[in-house]
Write a structure and sequence with these properties.
Length: about 110
Amino acid sequence: MRKCFGLLGLLLVASGAFAADPQLVERGRKEEQRSCIACHSLLLIDRQRISTAAWKKEIDKMIGWGAVVPDRQLLLEYLSQEYNESKPLPPPELSGNGSKTQSGKTGTSK
Ligand code: HEC
């Protein structure tokens, strides 16, 4: 009987995990593409490695600046899952001529 409950728990954990559902990740990615591309490159977002609380603040800051986010909860789950502190840092970004650039900003010229 105990074994049975253990198995049930395992199943529940597996089905509840965001990462276990590739469809959710896919939907989160779409939400990011829809909501966050208007003003800057998505690279600026995907290079971050921050906590869920920090992502929440970040999304709210962007909304304050005019971002339209139809599904804020989905986006928050997606960003905190994919771009948190436990993920490896992305490789340095290269510009068109192969030299290193400072960030994923677009449209800024020196
Ligand atoms: C209305 C325009 C606008 C939209 C839409 C927008 N952002 Fe931004 N975002 C900015 C500006 C302006 C900056 C500052 C860029 C800079 O420093 O050059 C920024 C910077 C960022 C940064 C870098 C850290 C920071 O706070 O400066 C992150 C992360 C970020 N945005 C995430 C997002 C996410 C996630 C979305 C989608 C919900 C989003 N942005 C949509 C305007 C926007």
